[in-house]
Amino acid sequence: MKELIEAESTPEKGELAAAEIISAELRRSGIDSRIDSWDSARANIVAHVKSTGSRAGLLFACHLDVVGPGEAAWKNPPFGAVESDGRIYGRGSVDMKGGTAAIVAAIRRIVDSGAKLQGDLVLLACAGEETDSCGAIRFACDHGEMPELAGVIVPEPTDFVVVTAHRGMLWLEATTKGKAAHSSAPQLGVNAINSMRLILNELESYEVPVEPHELLGKCSMSINTITGGKALNVVPDKCSIKVDIRTLPGQNNLDVVADFERIFAGLKSRNPQFDAEVSVLREMHALETDCGCDFVKDFCSCVGANETKAVGFTTDAPHLVSLGAPAVIFGPGKPTLCHKPDEYIDVADLDKAAEYYRQVIMSFLT
């Protein structure tokens, strides 16, 4: 766990070092793994514990990357993995190296015990969940030999709540194009910031056309960045905004893009100099697993849960359900600590998670 934090697997430094730590840990129990690396430092790692039985297998899917420490001051070094008063502090301790360390520990305990599994056990720890889900997408498209799966477990921090639904994500960039001119003669140019103001006025009253979800509520939209202009004495010829839309199960993202394009077309019809375009920066579909399916019911029974819940954050799970199995999210750590200074996880929760995962594996695969 501490070594994983110290690996500092930010988007800038990549995940390869963290993957190598997991590979070395698995080798201590004689478990082979495969590291899939690209772009010098990006990496997924996959371990496949095969069985001789005929039961459907399990896939545990983690991510290796972490967000950066940010600019706020930390009481402890963000990648120091300081242990104090029963807690381990560090970036990624909760999101999600705690869950990753716990499932690695659980797999090692089972293999070391000599237990005879009747279904295959697959561990995936992948790159890029915090940015573009490149690792999960890469695995889903080219995963090699894969058993029939009973289910997918994502050990993201849920504070041991079983999560079966979460919102998706649609990130858009809208850009207006103008014509540069000296600001002493603005009439000779087309001000792209003024054009963007027209878009912002339209979006203020825009609502994404989708019915609220029973558990997840309404689809939300937030305009979070704006950039424009090159110099104080130049009429800006470009202005861009980035929009974060949190989507619902079953929602068609293309409908939102089409709405933006219709808004732009209407503005241009009233102002021929208006010029704008919209592009998709990132999209992640929402997750909704049937709470009444056998996998969810059996999983809840294993961990002593009487209910499932929905959350607002996203995970790699929607990319992995393409493998044909239902998914749940269940892991140690408080979600409210994710991405914050002085992120920490309780050591007791790591032990608790490892035991939960061991029980789940033994229940489904023996």
Q: Characteristics of this structure?
A:
366 residues, alpha/beta, Aminopeptidase, Alpha-Beta Plaits, 2 domains, six-stranded mixed β-sheet, four-stranded antiparallel β-sheet, 9 helices
Could you characterize the architecture of this molecule?
With 366 residues, the protein is an alpha/beta fold. The protein has two domains: 2-166 and 286-365, Aminopeptidase; 168-284, Alpha-Beta Plaits, CATH 3.30.70.360. 30% of the residues lie in helices and 26% in strands. The chain contains nine helices and 16 strands. The protein has helices at 2-6, 16-27, 93-113, 134-141, 192-204, 253-270, 294-303, 317-320, 347-365, and strands spanning 33-38, 42-49, 55-63, 82-84, 87-89, 119-126, 149-154, 163-166, 168-177, 220-228, 238-247, 276-284, 287-288, 309-311, 327-329, 344-346. The chain has a six-stranded mixed beta sheet, with helices on both faces. Strand 4 (82-84) and strand 5 (87-89) form a beta hairpin. The two termini are 28 Å apart.
How are the elements arranged and paired?
Layout: H1 2-6, H2 16-27, E1 33-38, E2 42-49, E3 55-63, E4 82-84, E5 87-89, H3 93-113, E6 119-126, H4 134-141, E7 149-154, E8 163-166, E9 168-177, H5 192-204, E10 220-228, E11 238-247, H6 253-270, E12 276-284, E13 287-288, H7 294-303, E14 309-311, H8 317-320, E15 327-329, E16 344-346, H9 347-365
Parallel strand pairs: 3-6, 3-7, 7-15, 8-14
Antiparallel strand pairs: 1-2, 2-6, 4-5, 5-16, 8-13, 9-11, 9-12, 10-11
Helix pairs in contact: 3-9, 7-9
* CATH class descriptor of the largest domain: Alpha Beta
What is the molecular shape? Answer: elongated
Largest sheet: 6 strands, mixed
Task: Tell me which CATH architecture of the largest domain applies here.
Answer: 3-Layer(aba) Sandwich
CATH-defined topology of the largest domain: Aminopeptidase
Q: State the low-pLDDT regions, or none.
A: none
Q: State Rg.
A: 23 Å
Secondary structure category = alpha/beta
- Identify the strand order in the major beta sheet: 1-2-6-3-7-15
Taken as a percent bin, the fraction of beta residues is 25-35%
Mean pLDDT: 97
Full CATH superfamily name of the largest domain? Zn peptidases
Number of strands: 16
What string, H for helix and E for strand, traces the elements in order?
HHEEEEEHEHEEEHEEHEEHEHEEH
Percent of residues in helical segments? 25-40%
Number of helices: 9
In whole angstroms, the N-to-C terminal distance is 28 Å
In total, how many domains does the architecture comprise? 2
